[in-house]
Specification:
Chain lengths: ~280, ~280
């Protein structure tokens, strides 16, 4: 059978992978969920037709969104992940021995259940005894927290659909209020190839909650634009060159994307992206 | 009309762009050549069905393959570009005031003619008075040169089709012989996501001509894997941190990808690529 899975971005770009079979196709309370077995990238999870994770390249996204803030924060103990129901971000965070508690707040319980079933390696961190899984709305959940978190990871879908509120100015204010004074937020912040309008709005909204922010990039082949960005934000200055090299040494075995030099290098974002978001220094 | 241009990689991946019209479709002595006007990435040149350059993102490939060797070389005067018939690499090289002569050796004259017609901005450097265009086989051309070039840029297609010989051990030996003792070669060296076998063979062949080599990466959204690599090689040690910052300051206006920090950052290649090609240090 000549079977292809295709993600289509805005009627402009299609990225297709030869597919062996569809393992699951269903509708949750929030979104359409599919799991397909592809030839080039292994097993793939899609939400509302957008690729979220694949077995072969999930490490890029998950290493970048988790270890960079965890290593730049001086001593993270308590971390909240909003979204990230596949468990990949949590799995990477569990590699940090000093982290005492990781709360996952995912709105869609079906995503968590399916990922435990179909992506056991990605989701394995959800079984760690430091992890608490809360199925519910991240926006409401974080409003109850005040000055108590070291890191908040916003591991959301795109700014349309169930993830929309996770890009709002009000939400970033709630994140800032939930963090300790030296706390760090990191959020996926879309592709540098997206329009200046979309990217600028996200960055501007982050400034509603935070005085300091810096974006960094990584390359994800299963996303139609390839290059992706994440943005770190805090209400104290931070410097990506001051990450904890000793802690990096303890977690580096098994990493497939991130290297010691790659942490600061990720902040050397392309000029066209700097110009779009106004981040002129690395 | 619902028109899409599609590149298909090895029956595994398809990357498609919504297309407005086909401007040219023909067959040269060497390959099939198409020029299409796409919505997301502007005008696109394809050779044998593989995307070569697009108006919107060509700057990534061309800035990376040209300025990095030109800035790491202490004082380049004479440069040979093999392949690169679109003229984009030459156009970037002309920005270096110290370069006195740029020879382009492209096997397919039809590529040069079509790019002058359809991509005048990319090809504009071909009109610079320091540039000499030679239509012919780069493998034969470089064999006549001995110890006379500062930089050789191998701006080839993939290792199948007309570009195959430009990845061979014998060819890299010829390049080394054509360079001055402190000369530098840079070659496009395919996607880090390609197999260890393909990547390893290219890297191993480069060692047939050179004692020192280092690969670096950049993200190109119109290629089906997104991330791309280039490899610099020389018979003297070189250090990417020792690039000419004063010269960078003179060319940086107008660059859309490369930043001063981005030069060394590009050599901080992902761990999975390091492991495939055995480049364990940055």
């Amino acid at each position: 059978m000549n079977l292809w899975y295709t993600e289509q971005e805005a009627e402009l770009i299609k990225l297709s992978f030869r597919t062996e079979k569809v393992l699951f196709s269903g509708q949750s309370e929030f979104q359409k969920i599919d799991v397909v077995e592809t030839v080039p990238y292994g097993r793939l999870l899609t939400l509302d037709g957008c690729t979220m994770v694949s077995d072969h390249d999930e490490f890029v996204y998950h290493e970048m969104i988790s270890h960079i803030p965890a290593l730049i924060h001086k001593n993270p103990k308590r971390v909240l992940v909003i979204g990230g129901g596949d468990g990949g971000t949590v799995t990477e965070l569990t590699k940090h021995a000093g982290i005492e508690e990781i709360i996952l707040c995912e709105i869609d319980g079906m995503v968590v259940d399916l990922c435990k079933q179909y992506f056991p390696n990605v989701a394995r961190g959800l079984n760690d005894k430091r992890v608490k899984v809360n199925i519910g709305d991240g926006i409401a959940f974080i409003k109850k927290m005040k000055g108590e978190l070291d890191i908040v990871v916003v591991d959301s879908t795109d700014p349309i659909g169930p993830g929309e509120g996770l890009f709002s100015r009000d939400f970033y204010k709630s994140v800032a209020a939930a963090l300790k004074p030296d706390g760090i937020m990191v959020a996926q912040s879309e592709s540098p190839w997206f329009s200046k309008e979309i990217l600028g709005r996200i960055q501007n909204n982050i400034l509603g909650g935070f005085t300091h922010k810096k974006s960094y990039v990584g390359a994800i082949p299963t996303y139609p634009r390839g290059l992706w960005s994440w943005t770190m934000a805090a209400n104290v200055p931070f410097d990506q060159r001051d990450f904890d090299r000793a802690r990096f040494g303890k977690i580096k075995t098994g990493l497939k994307y991130l290297t010691e030099g790659g942490i600061t290098a990720a902040f050397e974002i392309p000029m066209f992206f700097r110009e779009k978001i106004g981040q002129l220094e690395g």
